[in-house]
Structures are given as C-alpha cells and as structure tokens.
C-alpha cells in the first residue's frame, strides 16, 4: 500500500510542480522587492533618496516598537535596574535583540540581492556598490532604531517607577486628581485600555489627513478625485464608527458603577464630542487643504463641509447596536461625501 501511495505521489509531482511552481516563483519575486527601496534610493535625487531610505529603515524597525512591551516586560525592566549592568552593556543587548528580530529581514535583503544579481537590471549595475552599501546601512539603521525603542521601553518603566515611589501629600494627590472626563474616557484611551486607543486614533487621523493632502494637491493625477474622496470618506467614517462601538461598550461596563456615584452627567456629551473628534479634525484639515489649493466651487465645498459635520452627528445619534441602521448611515454618508468631494473643482 505504501509503495502504491509513493507511486501515485510520484505521478502527481508534475501536476503539483505545474500548479505550485508559478506561485512559488511569484512569491520569490515579491520577496525580492523587500530590498528595492534602499537600493533604488541611491539613484534618486538626494532629498527623495534620503526620504525613501529613512522611511524604509523606520518601517523595518516597526516590529521592534510594536513588540517592545513583550520583549522587555515591565517586571524585567525593574529587575534590570537592580543588576550591575552598565549602559554600554544594556545598549549592546538591545542591539543584539534587534539584530535577532530583524534577521529574517536580512535574509529577505540577501534574497533581493541574489535576484538582482541574477537578472542584472541596468540601473542596479550602475549603482551596484553604493546600492549594496545602502541596503546594508538600511538594515543596520533599522537595528539601531529598534534598539532605541527597547531603550525607550526600559527608561519609561524606570521613570514611571520613580514617580510612583515619590511621597506626595494628600493635598497634592487631591489637586492632581483627574476630572470625570479624563478618568473615564481620556486616560483609558491613552493607556490602551480601549481598542482602538488614543495612539491608534491619532495614527488614523494622520492617515486621513495624508489622503486629503494627496487628493487636494494632486500628487497622483492618475487617481481620479472621486476615488480620493471615497478613500478619505470611508477612512473617516470607519474611525468614527469604530470609536463609537468602543466607547459604548466601555460606558456600558461602567454604567453600574457610575449609577452609584453622585457624579454629573456632563461627561456624556463630551464622550459624544470625542467620538466625532477624529472625523471633525480630519475634515477640517481636508477643507483647509481644498481652500489653499486650486480654485474651488463654493456650493460643493459648503455641502462637503456640512456633510463632514453632519455624518458623525448622525452616526452618534444611533446606537451602534442597531447594525442595519449604522450600515445604512455608513453607505449614505460615504456616497454623499464622495459625490460632493468629486465636484469640488471644475
């Protein structure tokens, strides 16, 4: 039976190779693109090349920033302060950990060099020595940036521990007590107790503003204005809808506790304003970019600005538990904002 199974597998090998071969080759081709940006940077003008090189190095170091709390838990950071390690030894360990984490990236860079050495494109042959140096320097810079992220994690834990150990009088503690809005909404969001947290929302708003800048300044004329308006509107509305769901679940968990406290309800309307804030900030930036760019049409711009204010207000007036109503609002608001945004210029 085993012999028959091996014989059938042997007969199936050409079929498997014919089906999986192109997929494997395409995968290798995609992996080879990992090192294109640092090598291509040396062929560009120095400003564009330096920007591309720096962006690649920072993106490659992002896993270390994202994993810094798992690589260096707070308990370890506190214990490290009790051990007789020098600053140089700690930095060396951070660089070693960064190099180990980014070792797969080094393998991808080596694969990229092998693929380009095999195919020998003209631009790569002309810039070959500097391209290899740029690629190696990009990986080293990513390791150093990752080591900086680990050092930041270690130092921040030490600073928080020192602040906790400081003896403060009851009067100082009462004076520093946060208000209801900060205690219930702001600090949980900033300390990543909510999902998405404040940092994720800030990143989303920055991405929406970047889309608005690319749209209004015409950086890629090949992309039509309606497509830019659609991407901007969908991202802004998605931030609002996701924040509303998170905020409602957070407040529902706090409702029994809040009912037993003599606290005012002023923080509730602040919570609604906080839900609308990402879309309002991104929308205000988009409107300002439109006004500062090419000649615009007043009617569509006013309708677009009113839509950016009315969309989050309408979404927050309907609880996120009503999924059908929220999906309908999402579709209607996205369609209207896309239509108004596509008519901003003649």
Automatic annotation (TrEMBL):
Keyword line: Membrane, Transmembrane, Transmembrane helix
Top-level taxon in the UniProt lineage: Bacteria
Signal peptide range: none
Transmembrane helix keyword on record: yes
Residue stretches spanning the membrane: 12-36, 48-67, 95-118, 130-152, 172-190, 196-215, 222-240, 271-291, 298-315, 327-345
Name of the protein in question: Uncharacterized protein
The species this protein was found in: Scleromatobacter humisilvae
């Amino acid at each position: 039976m085993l012999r028959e199974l091996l014989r059938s597998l042997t007969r199936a090998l050409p079929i498997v190779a014919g089906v999986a071969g192109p997929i494997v080759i395409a995968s290798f081709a995609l992996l080879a693109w990992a090192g294109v940006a640092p090598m291509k940077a040396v062929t560009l003008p120095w400003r564009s090349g330096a920007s591309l090189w720096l962006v690649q190095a920072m993106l490659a170091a992002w896993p270390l920033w994202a994993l810094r709390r798992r690589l260096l838990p707070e308990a370890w950071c506190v214990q490290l302060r009790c051990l007789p390690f020098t600053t140089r030894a700690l930095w060396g360990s951070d660089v070693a950990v960064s190099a180990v984490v980014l070792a797969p990236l080094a393998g991808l860079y080596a694969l990229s060099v092998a693929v380009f050495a095999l195919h020998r494109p003209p631009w790569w042959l002309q810039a070959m020595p500097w391209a290899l140096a740029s690629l190696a320097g990009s990986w080293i810079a990513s390791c150093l940036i990752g080591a900086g992220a680990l050092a930041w994690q270690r130092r921040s834990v030490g600073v928080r521990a020192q602040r906790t150990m400081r003896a403060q009088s009851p009067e100082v503690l009462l004076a520093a007590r946060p208000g209801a809005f900060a205690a219930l909404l702001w600090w949980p969001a900033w300390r990543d107790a909510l999902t998405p947290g404040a940092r994720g929302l800030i990143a989303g708003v920055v991405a929406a503003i970047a889309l608005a800048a690319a749209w209004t300044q015409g950086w890629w004329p090949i992309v039509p204005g309606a497509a830019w308006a659609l991407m901007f509107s969908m991202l802004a509305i998605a931030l609002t809808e996701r924040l509303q769901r998170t905020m409602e679940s957070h407040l529902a968990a706090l409702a029994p506790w809040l009912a037993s406290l003599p606290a005012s309800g002023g923080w509730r309307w602040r919570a609604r304003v906080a839900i609308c804030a990402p879309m309002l900030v991104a929308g205000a930036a988009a409107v300002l970019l439109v006004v500062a760019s090419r000649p615009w049409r007043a009617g569509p711009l006013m309708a677009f600005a009113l839509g950016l204010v009315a969309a989050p207000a309408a979404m927050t007036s309907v609880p996120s538990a009503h999924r059908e109503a929220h999906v309908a609002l999402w579709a209607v608001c996205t369609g209207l904002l896309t239509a108004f945004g596509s008519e901003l210029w003649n």
